[in-house]
Amino acid sequence: MRLSYVLGLLSALAVSGLPLPGAFAQDAIERRVDELLGQMTLEEKVGQLNLVSHGPPLRWEDLSEGRAGAVLNFNNAADVARAQALVQQSRLKIPLLFGLDVLHGFRTQFPLPLGEAAAFSPRLSALAAEASAKEASHVGVNWTFAPMADLSRDSRWGRIVEGFGEDPYLGSVLTAARVEGFRKGGLAAATKHFAGYGAPQGGRDYDTTYIPRAEMHDTYLPPFRAAAEAGSASFMAAFNALNGEPSTANAWLLTDVLRRQWGFDGFVTSDWVGIGELINHGVAADGAEAARKAILAGVDMDMMGQLYIAHLPDEVRAGRVPESVVDESVRRVLRTKFRLGLFDRPAIDPTRTDADFPSKETRQAAREVARETLVLLQNRGDLLPVKSGTRSIAVIGPLADAPQDQMGPHAARGHKEDSVTIFQGIRQRAQSAGIAVSHAPACDLMCRSTEQLPAALEAAKSADVVVAVFGEPQELSGEAASRAHLELSGKQSEILEALAATGKPIALVIMGGRPQILGPVAERIPSILMAWYPGTEGGNAVADVLFGDVSPSGKLPLTWPRATGQLPMYYNRLPSSRPTIPDNRFTLQYIDEAITPLYPFGWGLSYTQFAYSDATIARQKLDAGEALEVAVSVTNKGTRAGQEVVQLYTRDPVASRSRPLRELKAFEKISLEPGETKRVTLRVPVESLGFHLDDGTYVVEAGAIQAFVGGSSLAEPVGEADIVSTIRMPPEERRASASTGVAQ
Fold this sequence. Notes:
Number of strands: 27
Oligomer: single chain
Structural class: alpha/beta
Distance between the termini: 37 Å
Radius of gyration: 26 Å
Mean pLDDT: 95
Helix content: 25-40%
Strand content: 15-25%
């Protein structure tokens, strides 16, 4: 059988989404890579390692000369088709990767990833990623710089909105779901930012991080490992220095962990000009040294630095970089392109546009996802949902009718004209109930003055119910949006206090990319709903919940602090030698603020009430290959249907290293009709109940493991089981994932 025929067949299968016969396909791909690599000049090899953006410094002739292996920020079919045609003029005609930040949507915008994480639903994460990928691939994009697998415990960091929050298990499950969804929709994933980027000093974007290696393995690396196991085509090196060694030149991360321990055989790209920034880090004197250090550490592709193109040929000829190192990087890039079937894909139709979206189907999906991300933080007096008999609603706040801002940062090809704003969603839903709706912004987006407050107060006084919509405008969140003060910005608190003084029932909807410090607002406003940046269908989703058409089911994917000074703050902290004792100054506490969060991890209310009962542990003695199995009955005690996220936490109370007070190990989202009871069983493999040593060795120690089950990290204790024998696994040995049963 001819090799060309075999490869054609395999490429057709890849494009169709049908499974490939594993070893057979891989052997054929490796032979084709070897054949192509043997034909390449050194300059053509280095060209495959050059990633350049649309616009300057892109030279279109570079594409026809084989001087680029990938491009980014191509977001329309006409430009993609032009680039593909130029590649066909090159000697070897190696197809390009077309990369774009498709974080939470292409044209149709889904909630930002942190909001999406609040749904606690890998199904919805995969659904959103697949829908976004289908839109982007429709115009020729085939590679996304997502998902962001950076765990963060500090909401001062603006990019926390792009991730999944503070928990490594939740992050692992959702990161894997996003990778799978992107692939199913036609996009290869570039999981970022490898690694430790989410823990910068002071919450300052781009600042250095200091994380012990055991903590890296236990907390910050699991979501990345889950991405690798789920099939992420590539990884992106982080901007930051980790323990004094920049990630872009960190061989421990890129070679020892990613490739040797995990067996990853895709490629690694730098972040934007990340290789050149090794000079700023103080570990390279010039561009040549930066390029040399990056490729020797394991960075295969240079994003927008132009340093590989400029220096690697000379570095190889001078003997400072072995050509075999360049060959291996090129091999990884070519391998990925063959796996994606790029060599046999037809050129994109240049007449395709994103005007085909949002479609009815993507709007429906965006609305479904957004509804389940909304977190009801408090609801004193059952103010929500809006009661029958309500005649008028005043919607107050500048973010209530802000179509651009509700999409959040990194909105790809999102058009504000596509957005259904919160005001529009409420107005449309209220019309069907005969309720009059008015809107008064009260201030501009930044709430710099209260000039418009009098009109807002008049609107509030004339209404039966007030829905206030405040929070963070788009530009206050995302990359380069670190904040030292997380209080509601500008005059927002003053306006909310004035609204509360009217005596009208007020529901506050917070739009933004992280928890905000609410201060007295939390006491003055009875009902608070966190809406994150809810995306294109955000207004309809919020209205669905406000009016009770859907009961809120979101849970906080991170801890909500009372004060900025509590940060970093997270539920799975280590025990203190002096646990908190009220009124005892010499125990763990602040003298000017409570030690507890305002709302804990996993928190989220419903319009109904769930009761947990009869929790049991199936086996009291556990050995290798077995699982901690906890069953609990959950009953809907209310009069409305609802969803609950049943959460299982564990603790190792006595170990050779101090272990967290609680760790999320399993969860399941269930639906219950009024009065209905379901028996839920959550399983955690014994091999997932351990921890890492500094050298990467994984240990599950013999002894007691405590279990807790409930609707948040405040879950009630169930009991404990005993692990009968210690398990040790060297760094290269894979272990079973608690969520999927696949290697992790």
